């Protein structure tokens, strides 16, 4: 009994909580099945590593602050024929992250841009990348308040440590002059260091209308689109089409039963 307490104490010191949870049941199994000592030790190590990995991913997902968790596996690619599944799955493997490249998802509302952006960012979390998902307006608010509190460079440095920044919904609301400048400064700072995924309803030609300054917009687009994967979503809102389909089926059923 005493050596058990001692063992558990050592396992705590060594930070091996999953060893502590498993060693009794694993050693009983090993004795019963005549498992070699090394295999017993291997099983304990495997369980510890697997649990650490799971915690790490969980933490990364929590830190990314996704508004809603959406997996690529629940995306219906047949609804968006011009977004090839293969291309998205290839992006999900994360090659663009290693090269700090950009992904731009353009198109009308309701076509699944945020869903794909979230799915790609989740895949990055699972690969051990540091990710932060931002609605662009809340990033602008964070930038403005960091500037007001004289901690802008600290905030920028913090964002600069990410592997991937998601900027969701660029284009719905025009930025004020200060906000546009801060965003521009941030994007320049991240250029070729941190990957950015942008979702937007605006074609590039219309970005002037939300950033105001023509030269700054040109410079921003130049950085963002340099080595970018650009996916263009076309068609009608997915949910809207689903509702329409459901309604049509409803009338058909009614017609059939009346
Ligand atoms: P967007 O960002 O382009 O406005 P969203 O990604 O927010 O669109 O999509 C709106 C809703 O429809 C979300 O709940 C999303 O999960 C769903 N959705 C859109 N397209 C698809 C699709 N092809 N397959 C599955 N769900 C989809
Ligand atoms: Mg969206």
Compose a concise summary of this entry:
With 258 residues, the chain is of the alpha/beta class. It has twelve helices and five strands.
What brief labels describe this structure?
258 residues, alpha/beta, five-stranded parallel beta sheet, 12 helices, 60% helix, binds adenosine-5'-diphosphate, binds magnesium ion
Low-confidence sequence ranges: none
Strand order of the largest sheet: 2-3-4-1-5
Summing up helix and strand content along with how strands pair, one would put the structural category as alpha/beta
**What is the overall pLDDT average?**
94
User: Could you tell me which ligands this complex binds, including any ions or cofactors?
Assistant: adenosine-5'-diphosphate, magnesium ion
Q: Span from first to last CA? A: 77 Å
Strand content: 5-15%
Query: Quaternary arrangement of the chains shown?
Result: single chain
Q: How are helices and strands ordered from N to C?
A: HHHHHEHEHHEHEHHEH
Largest sheet: 5 strands, parallel
Helix fraction by DSSP (H/I, runs of at least 4): 55-70%
- Please give the radius of gyration in angstroms: 25 Å
Furnish the topology, listing elements before pairings.
Elements: H1 2-13, H2 17-32, H3 37-64, H4 85-92, H5 95-98, E1 102-107, H6 113-126, E2 131-135, H7 136-148, H8 152-160, E3 164-170, H9 177-190, E4 195-200, H10 208-211, H11 214-225, E5 228-233, H12 238-257
Parallel strand pairs: 1-4, 1-5, 2-3, 3-4
The chain binds adenosine-5'-diphosphate (ADP) and magnesium ion.
């Amino acid at each position: 009994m005493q050596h058990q307490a001692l063992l558990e104490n050592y396992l705590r010191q060594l930070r091996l909580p999953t060893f502590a949870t498993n060693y009794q049941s694993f050693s009983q199994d090993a004795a019963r099945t005549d498992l070699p000592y090394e295999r017993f030790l291997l099983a304990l190590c495997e369980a510890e590593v697997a649990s650490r990995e799971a915690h790490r991913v969980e933490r990364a997902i929590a830190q990314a602050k996704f508004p809603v968790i959406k997996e690529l596996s629940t995306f219906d690619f047949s609804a968006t024929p011009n977004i090839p599944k293969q291309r998205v799955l290839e992006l999900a493997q994360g090659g663009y992250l290693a090269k700090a490249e950009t992904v731009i998802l353009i198109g009308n509302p309701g076509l699944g841009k945020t869903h794909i952006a979230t799915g790609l960012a989740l895949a990055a979390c699972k690969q051990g990348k540091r990710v932060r998902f931002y609605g662009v307006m809340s990033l602008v608010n964070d930038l403005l308040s960091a500037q007001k509190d004289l901690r802008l460079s600290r905030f920028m440095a913090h964002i600069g440590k990410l592997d991937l920044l998601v900027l969701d919904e660029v284009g719905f609301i025009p930025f004020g002059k200060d906000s546009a400048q801060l965003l521009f400064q941030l994007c320049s700072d991240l250029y070729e260091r941190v990957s950015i995924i942008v979702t937007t309803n605006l074609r590039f030609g219309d970005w002037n209308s939300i950033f105001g300054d023509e030269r700054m917009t040109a410079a921003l687009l130049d950085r963002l689109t340099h080595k970018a994967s650009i996916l263009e979503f076309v068609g009608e809102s997915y949910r809207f089409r689903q509702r329409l389909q459901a309604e049509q089926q409803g009338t058909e059923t009614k017609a059939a039963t009346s």
